[in-house]
Amino acid sequence: MILMAAQKKKKRKKPHLLSHTRPASTAKRPSLSSQATRSLIRSHHTLQKQLRAAISNGDNAAAESLQAQLAASGGLQKYQEASIQGQSAERGGDTSRVLMGWIGELLSHARHGSGTMQGKGKMRMLEVGALKVDNACSRSGIFDVTRIDLHSRHPGIKTQDFMEMQLPLGKALDEDSFDLVSLSLVVNYVGDAAGRGDMLKRAGAFLRLGRHSGEENIVGSMFPAVFLVLPAPCVMNSRYLDEERLEDIMNFLGYVKVKRKLSQNLVYYLWQYVGRKAGQLEDVVFKKEEVRPGGQRNNFAIVVQ
Fold it and tell me: Over the range 107-137, which residues count as b (16 or more CB within 10 Å of their CB) and which as e?
């Protein structure tokens, strides 16, 4: 009861997406080195985190100083350029290539077995925080892709806040829902731990169950699903989140892990959505609790409440 009272007093701000700092752009700009790109992105994230804390604490002087530092470093525009370059193919940054590799395995099984890849037309994909319209998923011909971003600069990407996007309901449930929701390097940019949990919970509401059920359709072993990509340290070196904790959270939200890949900088997951279990307790809370002690840990967390 004490925890609930504290939560009511502190009104949580609506979480913002990584997408609002990463608009797609087709303009040709001078390329930053890989090291400079990573440094600029890390610096921007750190300053933004400090700015949110200063505003939350009512420290106007610190907030003004941090805003000045952000402006001096090139501000949002420079960060956008670095993010787009970091996602470029020549940097190996198209995370959807990993997803397409996993789907390629399914395609191979479909060609050499009795099952089919899909029997009801293209699968529908929602890409949250879209940067470009020509990534691996878009070029595959497998998906009918809906791309959204808070500040789109491309006609193929709709300006839309995922957290305010109309949920598919009633007669429009099948038509407006998706087989895949991509949250690639998006959840980690939400400003607070509870907001990250809200985003993962909300993603399930956009996925349509039952479309790929049946023995003859091997896509049913993977979809509907969420493609989740996070910076590796968020899971591998966090004080409050490890892979066991993440899997517990996702299982509670109705997901089952079907694919995983860890690279030097990123961790990729494909979580199939099977729906919440009947009779599941609704009052389960995943709080910000230490799961990995140590002095050299970061404080990334995901809270479900």
Answer: beebeeeebebbeeeebbbbbbbbbbbebbb
